[in-house]
């Protein structure tokens, strides 16, 4: 008589209750996993929208008290020797609580879904004899993290997890020697049907940027480019969708004031605020702009815009070129700092003049932009489906669990 083995028990650890890119990727992944093979529960260090959405999806969630550790940002982590000592104490206390939690739950595998989660598991996992995998959503580079933090995290990747699942080749490359033979790339997948809209030849709508408001996300550069474009194309309208998290609220307020006080921007730029309807926001745009001055690890919003049938302008750094120029073909230079690929335009990051040139070109070459949007939509549906991501991740999880069981049997 054949018996079906029980699903592998997987405990995912993430530090935040907010829903950012890494958490969105996690929610989509859990929804696509084979429930007959993997039983997933999630542990967080704070309450928030993530917990609610996991509960709505029938996922068991538990929360651990991490004290002040939850709200230590990347920059503040090394702000002073006193901060380092204080954070170390919070880390050790939280690790003790996590160790007891893991021993009680007895998972077959633990998954770290953030940098802080990986640090905690480096302290915790050895005492539980439970293998862990790091789902890496951050580039471990000095242009993205403080240099000492990036170096420490690369060392952790070498000695801690059994495997690393990186969200792009660009992210994997920042591991250097630490990732050799231990890293698998699994692009964050998307349900194409949630975003799909037929590409329109006569598409109209504002030029828009969608995402969390932050210095690293490019709203300031977007406004710089909007001012330049407005001088030559006065009828163009711009739309900013998103809101800042607590540590970036002063920056958002400064950008809003700048918009209101600018003769060129005040009547042309709409600040829409946070929206839960990202597909709807993307579908209303005439042109989507990704303007991050800091190289992004991946760029889920770029994929979502492609699936929505919106022409795309995006920064040429980090994981984004893997989305718009997957074969590294180079594309066609069409202006200083701008190159054209089959799926859209790539722009030198942090260069508002180049961004403005790309926006103008896309608006003035409607037929070419529409052709690129059609190609991008089909390509994104083929390469970034959530089913493909789930299959890659399931393979890594299976391998790690089986190897761990083999070691225990010996």
From TrEMBL:
Q: Which CDD domains match?
A: GT4_PimA-like
Instruction: Enumerate the spans annotated as Glycosyltransferase subfamily 4-like N-terminal domain.
Output: 19-192
The record ties this protein, via Pfam families, to: Glyco_transf_4 (PF13439), Glycos_transf_1 (PF00534)
**UniProt protein name:** Glycosyltransferase involved in cell wall biosynthesis
The biological processes this protein is annotated with in GO are: carbohydrate derivative biosynthetic process
Domain of life of the organism encoding this protein: Bacteria
- Extract one GO molecular function annotation from the record: glycosyltransferase activity
Keyword Glycosyltransferase attributed: yes
Glycosyltransferase among keywords: yes
Q: Which residues form the Glycosyl transferase family domain?
A: 207-375
Annotated coiled-coil positions are: none
Q: Keywords of this protein's UniProt record, alphabetized?
A: Glycosyltransferase, Transferase
The record ties this protein, via InterPro entries, to: Glyco_trans_1 (IPR001296), Glyco_trans_4-like_N (IPR028098), Glycosyltransferase_grp1 (IPR050194)
């Amino acid at each position: 008589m054949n018996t079906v083995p029980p699903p592998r028990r997987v405990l995912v650890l993430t530090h935040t209750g907010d829903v950012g890119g890494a958490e969105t990727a996690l929610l989509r992944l859990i929804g696509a996993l084979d429930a007959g093979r993997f039983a997933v529960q999630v542990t967080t260090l704070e309450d928030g929208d993530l917990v609610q959405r996991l509960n709505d999806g029938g996922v068991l969630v538990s929360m651990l008290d991490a004290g002040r550790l939850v709200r230590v940002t990347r920059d503040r982590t090394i702000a002073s020797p006193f901060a380092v000592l204080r954070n170390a104490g919070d880390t050790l206390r939280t690790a003790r609580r996590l160790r007891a939690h893991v021993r009680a739950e007895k998972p077959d595998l633990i998954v770290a879904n953030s940098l802080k989660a990986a640090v905690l598991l480096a302290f915790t996992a050895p005492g539980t004899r439970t293998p862990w995998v790091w789902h890496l959503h951050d580039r471990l580079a000095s242009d993205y993290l403080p240099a000492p933090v990036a170096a420490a995290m690369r060392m952790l990747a070498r000695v801690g997890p059994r495997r690393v699942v990186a969200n792009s080749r660009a992210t994997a490359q920042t591991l250097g020697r630490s990732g050799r033979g231990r890293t698998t790339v699994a692009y964050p997948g998307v349900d194409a049907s949630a975003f799909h809209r037929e590409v329109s030849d006569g598409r109209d709508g504002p030029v828009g940027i969608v995402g969390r408001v932050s210095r690293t996300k490019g709203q300031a550069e977007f406004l710089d480019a909007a001012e330049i474009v407005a001088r030559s194309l006065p009828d163009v309208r711009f739309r900013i969708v998103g809101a800042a998290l607590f540590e970036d609220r002063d920056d958002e307020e400064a950008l809003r004031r700048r918009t209101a006080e600018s003769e060129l921007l005040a009547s042309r730029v709409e600040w829409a605020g946070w929206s839960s309807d990202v597909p709807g926001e993307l579908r209303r745009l005439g042109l989507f702009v990704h303007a991050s001055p800091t190289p992004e690890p991946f760029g889920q919003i770029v994929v979502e815009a492609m699936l929505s049938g919106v022409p795309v302008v995006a920064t040429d750094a980090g994981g984004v070129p893997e989305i718009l120029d997957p074969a590294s073909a180079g594309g066609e230079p069409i202006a200083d700092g701008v190159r054209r690929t089959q799926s859209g335009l790539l722009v030198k990051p942090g260069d508002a003049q180049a961004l403005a040139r790309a926006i103008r070109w896309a608006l003035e070459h409607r037929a070419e932009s529409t052709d690129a949007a059609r190609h991008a939509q089909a390509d994104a549906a083929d390469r970034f489906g959530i089913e493909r991501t789930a299959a890659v991740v399931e393979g890594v999880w299976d391998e790690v669990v089986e190897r761990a069981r083999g070691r225990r049997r010996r």
